[in-house]
Amino acid sequence: MSDLLRSLPSIREQAPPSRPGPNVLTTTRARSTSTSSDPDASSSDSSTSTADSINTLRPSTPPSTSLQPPIPWPRFFTKELHLPFTPPSSPHPTAIYHAYLTPPASPTKGPLFITHHGAGSSAMSFGPFAQALRSLAPEAGILSLSAREHGSEILPAAPPLSDPDFSIPTLTTDALRTILLVQSHEAWPSLPPCVLVGHSLGGAVFTSLAADGALGPALVGLQVLDVVEGSALEALAWMRTYLASRPSRFGSVGEAVDWHLRSRVVRRGESAGVTVPSLLVRLPERGAGEGRGEGRGQGEDGWGWRTDLVRTQGFWEGWFAGMSSRFLAGRAAKALVLAGTDRLDRELMVGQMQGRFQLTVLPEAGHFLHEDVPEKMAGLSLEFFRRNDRSALVLPPKVGELLKMGKKV
């Protein structure tokens, strides 16, 4: 988080001349539902679905006219799910939760890595991480969640000027509902042994979920990526400046990818080409008589941000206040992975000295460390699971059980 804070002033500086777009990943080791050579494939992170459409979706929209076409999700996950949630008190769905999934080879053995993106990001943020993870452990599963207004849809849709609910309890409930809906959809008798991996806001959401104990013994551990309560609250003072300084529109998806690389929001070109397109939506066509930029076709007016982060600003402080105590309160194993030397508050310093969580620093990465160094992050997550998984342990019988069996002790 401190790395992002240091980079904010540089984003306002004039960008250097545009350079060629990043190379597209062509090597795919993760299982997919369509081949990477499909010329009609396009990113469907923003694809629509009816309330009953909960099966795997294949990208079917025609290729974009943008300079950098989106990379399709099947290169990184096997399923895209749109899961309707209908509470007992309502005859109609009140939400359609979106997620990407590659199931584990064995639902009983796992592991299942459940990921949650940060504010303004998307479930595709963990696409490169998912691919790297599957190359290291083909038996592993990964479930990447979308927050509300980041891919998941709350029904009925709130008017643009209404007050949304982005509080931590609400986002935690959304995450838990999505996980349980996926379990039901996949007909798993119970959740596989799992690790929660949350980046920035996603780390705060999963910290709350782990502290609640709602996943029970299935939860092996919690990994929080590049967010610490103290430095996160400090960075909030700069967030309005950052949001006001970034471009409000891009002429093409490739232009958006290039901006993320030049401003060093994302540092790895292959990752930016995968993750940035899902952050954008096509802007409506301007009215007659209004100017159009050069290089844009008839009927389009560039690309804008999918999520309006300004609407969430009333919840920013609540996302991170008290996070350290909730992080330490969780019963599962805990790990904190930082891109820089964030200042740990007193609670975390004491907790680290007591060995209550594992601390790792990746100085070569930026704030989006799972996009900048996905192979290294995947290795850390897999090692974290293997170190803390107790599902395969066979404990010796207790003395009372031996006596009941007539054994001598």
TrEMBL record:
Transmembrane segments: none
Catalytic activity: [phosphatase 2A protein]-C-terminal L-leucine methyl ester + H2O = [phosphatase 2A protein]-C-terminal L-leucine + methanol + H(+)
Active site: S200, D226, H367
The enzyme's E.C. designation: 3.1.1.-
Single Gene Ontology MF annotation: protein methylesterase activity
Alphabetical list of Gene3D superfamilies matching this protein: alpha/beta hydrolase (3.40.50.1820)
Keyword Nucleotide-binding belongs to the record: no
Domain AB hydrolase-1: 116-378
Domain of life per record: Eukaryota
Record-stated family: Belongs to the AB hydrolase superfamily.
Summary of the function given for this chain in its UniProt record: Demethylates proteins that have been reversibly carboxymethylated. Demethylates the phosphatase PP2A catalytic subunit.
Record-linked PANTHER family: PROTEIN PHOSPHATASE METHYLESTERASE 1 (PTHR14189:SF0), PROTEIN PHOSPHATASE METHYLESTERASE-1 RELATED (PTHR14189)
Name of the protein in its database record: Protein phosphatase methylesterase 1
Annotated source species: Elsinoe ampelina
